[in-house]
Structures are given as C-alpha cells and as structure tokens.
Amino acid sequence: MLWLLRRAIVILYPRASLPGAADCALDDFLRTFKRETPLSVWAGTVAGAVVFHLFPLFTVFVPLPAFLLPRRLADLHAARISVSSLYLVRQSIFLVKMCAGLCWAADPQVRARLALPPLIEDPRTWRTS
Amino acid sequence: MSHVAFRPRGEDLEDTFDFVVVGSGAGGAAAASLLVRGGAKVAMVEAGAWRDPTDYPQTAFGGMRDLMDNFGAQVTMGRALWPVVQARVVGGTTVVNSAICVRTPGDLFAQWETEHGLHDLERPLLAAEDRLEQALTIEEVPAHARGRSNELAVVGEAALGWPHRHVMRRYAKHCEGQGFCLQGCRAAKKQSLNLTFAPEVAAGGTVLSCAPVEKVLLEGRRAVGVTGTFRHPTSHARGARFTLRATKAVLVAASVTHTPVLLMKSGVRLPALGHFFRSHPGTGVFGVYDEPIDLNVGATQGWASTAFRDQPGFKLEVLSIPPELVASRLSGGGTQLMQRLEDFRHLAMWVVAVRADSVGRVTKSLFGNPVVHYSLNHADMLKLRAGLKLLAQQHFAAGARKVLPSIAGLPYELTADQVDLFDQAPLDPRAYVAILSHLFGGAVMGRDEATSVVDHRGRVHGYQGLVVADASVIPTNLGVNPQHTIMGLAQVFAEALL
Fold first, then answer.
1. pTM of the predicted model, to two decimals?
2. Cα-Cα-Cα-Cα dihedral sign, residues B482, B483, B485, B490
3. Residue B53 to chain A, least CA–CA distance (Å)
4. CA-based nearest residue in chain B for residue A124
C-alpha cells in the first residue's frame, strides 16, 4: 500500500523547476504518516491512492493503472483527476495531495526555493509533571 | 503546583474537589481560573497533552498530530465533507487559533432575550470581557508584524471604501509576526490559555492532562464527578483510570462536538441535547501579485472586516495557512500543479467566514464519537459566494494580477474583468473547499427545556451540579470570532457557582 501511495504522490508532485515529491524524504515520511495518523486518515489516503491508480480509463481513456502509464499520460491523468466532476473522487485525491503536501512543503530544499526558513524537527515532547 | 500527566495502568487516581472542570480550552480554563481565584478546590481535566512553546511542532503534520483533535479529520456529514477544526491540548483551540479578540456584539443580547428568554447576560458578560482584557494582554497587530498579506488587505479595503476599518486586536504580547499562530506560537507571544490560565489553575488547584473524560458521574439527577482513562499522547495506549469527585459541581467545557456527546454518554436526557449546532463555515480566495507576498511572514491573521456582518452576513479576514496546506489547496496535479506552486511567494490568502443561518446536529456514533450533521442551505451558500466575490474585488483593488477562486466549475484563475463569474459559481457546497472553524450550539442556553439544554448561567435543566461552560451553550451564530464571548460566558457561569 505504501508503494501505491508513493507512486500516486510522485505522479501528482513531479520534479519540475521545483523539486518533486521524489526529491524529498518521502519514504520516511510515509512510514511516519502511516504510524502516527488515525486509522481513518490512513485508510482514506490509501483509498485515494487506489482511486488515483484505477481511474485512467475515465481521465485519459487508457485501460491501465496510473502506475503503468507513460509519463506524459500519467501527468495528464494527474491534472484531470484532481479536478474530477465526481465529488468523492476529487475528495479522495485531495487526501492524497494533503499527505503529499505535508511532506513536500516541509522539505528543506523546497522551503529554500519558496524563500522559507528550514523547519526544526518536531520535538514530540510535552509536560510530564 | 499540581499537574498530573499520563499515568500507566495500575496507578489509578481518585480524589475529591469542589469543582471538576472538563476541558481546558477557552471555556474550561477561563472558568477554572476564576473558580481557583475564588478559593475553590478545582481540578481541570484535559484530554490532550500539556505542551509549552518549546514543545510545539513546527511542521503542519506535527501540528495536526500533536495539537488537533483526531488529526483534524472530523468532517461534517452532509452534502459536503468539510473539516470541523478543534484542538486537543491543554489550552484547547486557543493554542492553534490566531487569538482574535472581539467583544460580543450588542445586538445579540436582544436576540437572545427575545428568542431564547435569556435575561441578565449583557451586563455580567461585558464586565467579564473587561476583566479578561485586563488579565490577558490585548494588542493591535503591530505594524512590523503585519506582513505584506495583511498590509495589502488594508490597501484593498481602503480602496473599496468599506466602513468600520480597524486593525485586528488579539490576545498577544509584542507579536513578532513569525507566522506560526496555527501551529502554536513558539515565540510565546500569543497569550494562549496553556500559558496563562492553565498555570494559574495548576498553581491553585490540579490539572490532569492526557486524561479524556468518559463519563460524568450522576447520582440520580445530581452530577458528583467524572471518570475516565489516561491516554498516552504518542502511543495512545490506555493508562490508569481516574475518578474525580465534585462536591459542588461538574463544569463541562469539552467543545461543541464533545460536550453534547459526553452528556449523552453520561445519561443526560434532554430533547434539545445535540441540536442547534451552528458554525462559521469559511473558505478563501488567493490573490496572485507581481511582488513577493511571502504569506507566512507576519501575523497569520492581522486584518479583518466586520462591515458585512449584518448584511449579507459574513466576516472577511486574512488567513495565511502553512505552505504544506497551500500545496494541497491549489487545484490540479502533475506538472500543472508544480507550475502553479511556482507562484507560491506571490500568493495572499483572504477568507470569508459566513454568519450562517443553517442549523445542524451533533450525535453519538456507535463507537461513542461525535458525528456532526451539517449542510449549508441555499441562502448561506449565496452569502459564501458573495463573500468570495468581494474578496476577489478586494484583491484586485490591492493590485492583484489575478485571483484563484478554488471553486469547482470555475476556471483556475480569473482576471479583474472576469470577477462577475463568481455570480455564476455553483451553489453546491461540494464545489468548495471549506472548513468549519467557529462552532456553536449542541447544548444551547434558553429558558424552555424543550428547546434548550442549559439556563442563562449554564446550569443543565433538571440536573443539579452540572454546568456547561463552552461554546456549545451559545444559541445563535455570533458573526465574529468567538473566543472572547466563550471565555466571558464561562466566567459568568463560574462566578455564579462561588
């Protein structure tokens, strides 16, 4: 499932003049995301990735899963499915994009390109007494 | 100082207090601090952890995980799935909001009196708000901390000649404009209640954190305490049980979604419980400018207009969301999305929060969690759309090159001569990416037991020693940011208990 989600994210956020999702620490992030989000969020995000990979037939009219599409068609599929007229499809892809955005825009290289300072590591601490 | 955080299994906790306050947000912490000042023995119980500014996460992911209720994943069950945003941390939503301070608008008191039979609230509530403004530092967003997005909003407002212009007042002390209000202010400038009232409660009473309350204990129709189980803040492992007895009263301030459900789970039976849920649904328009805006530099929210509160019925404000959320908020995917993200430094986001008339309901799921049933009606959708059009006009008046409406069915971007296309935007809520930020109702105040849950001092009808002290008592939509009203009402209710 991680692989499926990773592929969807890499297609949705490809390397262009800005770094792509594949240029970020995506694998580490996805493992953390799976471990630390509520089951409903994880399940919804994975469902979104499944929808993403199953829908090329309805966006670019090719009966292949998105991960088997050539790059140009995959890119077109990503653009079309994210603005699908079907609300639940659009929302499913939004969940994948949100997961991707949480990783992508926190990455130091991306932040540097956006003129933002790097983030410190989340402390994961709290008052214990 | 007495603070009890997570306790492992086997270290059960039992104690007796005068008052037990469930929740430590705007309502709970304000009520508990007043009770402590009055000399009472108080326990304040919070489901989330107690995090200080050095504990705050900086990433948006960390903020959702460590500070938000259920990762911010609660959504409305209605025509559209809109997130219902609330925090789960000591200090509650005051940790993750922009600390905007607006006094309760005067027209509401007349409405509450005529429609809900609520007398004797205006004078004590406004007096409580006076005291709160003294106790918590209130400042206008300083010029050096406004950032370009807020400055341009002022320019656009002035160019359009909107009335009631003023700089936003917030619970902040020497804001530096670091742009992290929504993830908690690591500079400790925001006067969130984990830094102000919660330490006061801990100094004079007891604070339990990581301690979700499962049930209010009732003996007949009298509340005598609460019980629950500690939850570890990272592993979510169940810990020890706690039982806190209250000799005088239990105050429930667990949020608009959790308060009604906690009362339902505790066996409170009132016909209006969970009903009359209301909110300020909001969404935004990005303006794209030639100059760099760098929207995450400066106060997250430093400008607002209440000029349209009465007619058509909405509030406009700046909201600079973190870049992680901008990355998913812009529509599109693939190379097209990456090209759009190249505009990031030139984006300013301004939002409309609708003073919605739509009414929803909070119910309990099979697993005992809150479910929010809510959809915007046609009239409210017209307001939302009108607000977005005004924001677009404001962006253009401030010099924007184009705007990004983010409405399904409209083009990705519009130029100034296309602004009337907003009038043709769909009125289906599913076409909008919106959230519910300010929540009201579910245990509303009123005189009639058939249509309300509590009286004008938050006392639950037909029960003794049981008080609700959060936004769930507010029977109407305020049309302004509610933190000041919530804290004021909670202190009025607490004062009546001393």
1. 0.96
2. positive
3. 10
4. B55
